[in-house]
Specification:
heterodimer; A: two-stranded antiparallel ribbon; 11 helices; globular
């Protein structure tokens, strides 16, 4: 592997890892901090991608569609929390698994009814459709740089929100002792509703950004869901910082695994998980 | 007044005569045992269009024979297999045990076809596979009562490998999803390409139905092979061809594939598919008289253009007829039917073909070039290509 190839594969790894982080960060909030095993989290990613497809068909512009899609996803997430998830905080994990698994089936059926089972493509916005040539045969697409940049910004923003703001402090406190936080006069229900909706937005945004590069297809949520749980577990449950590191590790393992060990494509991620968990059973960063 | 009554009576006689004639006609057909055909195909989900095309093709042939096969009335039993291997055994058993069909026709998805073939073997039911290309079906899992009217995954792959070697390419990289169909096709390609003096420098795979090709395209660009062979279909094919073009590779490294890459997907690819070379047992613009008649009749009946799947359905019905011809309205003697199908020459729209001893078509594989929405015939990649049927003993 020559240097330019190596460089591009690093960029590919970063881009894939950062996109995974975006999905997993939402799961970190909902599963890691709020304590809900949400199997439907991958569906939010799928819904985001289909939303991007539908809105782009209407508006003809992916960037505008994303701008419209974010508030839609937020409202959807808040409604879903109010209707269903709000009743789950005090239930045990089995009941959470049952309900959220049911949601996966419902979302897939609804998707099938609404847009059918075809695979759809979304065009990369013309503004970002160019590639930067790095050698005579190798070039790197501008759109992927954009994805990496957006994800990095969101990672920084999320870290700031959790560690440096009063809201973040309340969220972290709430995860340790709901009743105490409530007793301090904080509307914990509203707080959790907001955090849950934020998690939905993060997953949906990842789906919207990924739509042009991964295409939009049935069942796309389930593969991402498994990887997201792997990330949350090896990062250390509840740690945003850990999720970022774990997502990047997985981006590297998957990209270089595909290329260096093509026969084991798809396995590299699980080997990585096994190694990390043998080394640190609670994940790289423990819940802080 | 009397005249009016006479008139009425005369008309009654005519009507009665007509009625008795009408009842007599089917009686004639009843003389031969009916043939019960179990169609187990996908009618919902991703492959619904394929299942429908196969059914249309099958019924078109029966219609051309006046609604019967070898003088036998055809009774259909239809099951939607949903392309779900988990439901395959139950669905096939339902057709065989409850409906007591004489022949199973199905299916598109290889995993479902493998389960069907097991039921067919266990119950000794005649089976005709109108699409699924899994090599095993006419390889290790072959059986006297199982026939295929389509292809084996190995066939178009092998043909394309031969073409790539003949074009003078010395090195190639293959890429597909890590699943049986893809591996069978890329192995076929590698076999012929290396026999022709080329070298496959790397066989890349990614998990099905993953369509994030970026890392692998980077790898291909850095390996700089003289040719690339891929096996993709449907939405993944569209995505791959677009990405290959966007990465600037289409200009520098020729891309080859089995025909499924560009069959029914060219429109969605936009310009990215233009000029791609693929190999398949069917093409647009074949100079086969049978094909012209078939296409015209199909377009008239179904108000759409036929495709390779419709051809495979049509030929499944032809194969069944040649079997039934052997027992000329008599008892459905399976041994005689099997012998007759096995030695038949099928007058297919793709060009006439015969069946190998493993019951897979020995057929011409065409080289096609994507032009607009068509996969135009360029030439014959390999004449009368037989699948090697490794592992078949019968």
């Amino acid at each position: 592997m020559d240097f330019t190839t190596f460089l591009i594969q690093i960029l590919n790894s970063l881009q894939y890892g950062l996109l995974l982080f975006l999905v997993a960060s939402g799961l970190t909030l909902v599963f890691g901090i709020m304590g809900i095993i949400n199997l439907a989290h991958g569906s939010f990613y799928m819904i985001g991608a289909y939303l991007a497809f539908a809105l782009t068909s209407l508006t003809g512009n992916l960037m505008l569609s994303i701008a419209l899609g974010i508030p839609l996803a937020f409202v959807f997430g808040a409604l879903l929390e109010w209707l269903l998830f709000a009743h789950l905080y005090k239930r045990d994990h089995l009941e959470q698994v049952l309900l959220t698994y049911g949601l996966i089936l419902i979302f897939e059926e609804l998707r099938s009814l609404a847009v059918g089972d075809d695979v759809h493509g979304v065009d990369i916005p013309a503004l970002f459709s160019a590639s930067i040539p790095l050698s005579d045969t190798l070039s790197y697409p501008v759109y992927r740089i954009l994805i990496s940049a957006v994800c990095l910004l969101l990672a920084a923003g999320l870290w700031w929100l959790m560690q440096r703001t009063k809201l973040g402090m309340m969220i972290r406190a709430g995860s340790h002792d709901r009743d105490m936080v409530q007793a301090l006069g904080i509307d914990i229900n509203l707080l959790y509703r907001t955090v849950f909706a934020l998690g939905v937005v993060l997953a949906a945004l990842a789906g919207m950004l990924a739509a042009p590069i991964s295409s939009v297809y049935p069942g796309m949520g389930s593969s991402v869901l498994i990887i997201s749980f792997v990330i949350v577990v090896i990062g250390g449950i509840g740690s945003v910082w850990g999720a970022l590191v774990a997502a990047l590790l997985i981006g590297f393992a998957d990209t270089f695994g595909k290329v260096l060990l093509p026969d084991l494509a798809g396995l590299a991620v699980y080997v990585l998980m096994a190694v990390v968990l043998l080394w640190r059973p609670e994940g790289i960063f423990k819940k802080g | 007044m009397q005249k009016q009554q006479q008139n009425k009576a005369a008309r009654m006689v005519v009507a009665l005569a007509g009625l008795s004639l009408a009842t007599l006609l089917p009686l004639g057909a009843h003389a031969a045992e009916k043939i019960k055909v179990g169609l187990m195909l996908p009618y919902t989900g991703t492959y619904a269009a394929l299942g429908t095309a196969i059914t249309n093709g099958f019924k078109q042939y029966v219609a051309e024979q006046g609604g019967t096969l070898a003088g036998r009335e055809v009774e259909y039993f239809v099951v939607d297999d949903e392309s779900d291997p988990a439901k395959a055994t139950e669905n096939a058993n339902k057709l065989v045990k409850r409906d007591e069909v004489d022949v199973l026709v199905g299916t598109v998805h290889s995993g479902v076809a493998l389960a069907m073939a097991k039921v067919a073997r266990d119950t000794k039911t005649l089976m005709i596979i109108p699409n699924a290309g899994a090599d095993e079906l006419t390889g290790p899992l072959c059986a006297p009562n199982i026939f295929r009217s389509s292809f084996s995954n190995w066939q178009p792959g092998y043909a394309m490998g031969k073409v790539a070697a003949e074009k003078g390419h010395k090195t190639a990289v293959t890429l597909t999803w890590k699943y049986a169909a893809g591996e069978e096709a890329t192995n076929g390609f590698a076999k012929a390409f290396e026999a022709g003096g080329g070298k496959v420098v790397k066989q890349l795979t990614l998990p099905f139905p993953n369509v994030e090709f970026q890392a692998l395209l980077t790898e291909i660009a850095s390996l700089k092979p003289e040719a690339v062979y891929v096996f993709f279909a449907g939405g993944g094919a569209v995505k791959f061809v677009k990405d290959y073009d966007a990465a600037g590779l289409k200009k520098s490294i020729p891309l080859y594939s089995s025909g499924f890459l560009t069959d029914g997907t060219l429109e969605a690819m936009g310009g990215a598919g233009e000029g791609l070379l693929t190999a398949l047992h069917y093409a647009d613009g074949l100079e086969v008289p049978k094909d012209k008649a078939f296409r015209t009749a199909y377009a008239m009946t179904y108000k759409m253009q036929p495709d390779v799947y419709a051809v495979q359905g049509y030929d499944a019905a032809q194969m069944l007829k040649s079997g039934l011809d052997a027992v000329k309205g008599g008892k459905l003697d399976q041994a005689a039917i099997i012998k007759a199908i096995g030695s038949a020459t099928v007058d297919s729209p793709r060009g006439a073909f015969t069946l190998s001893s493993a019951h897979n078509p020995i057929q011409d594989i065409y080289l096609r070039k994507a032009e607009g929405k068509d996969n135009k015939l360029v030439g014959v990649a390999v004449k009368k290509l037989a699948d090697p049927a490794r592992g078949c003993r019968m």
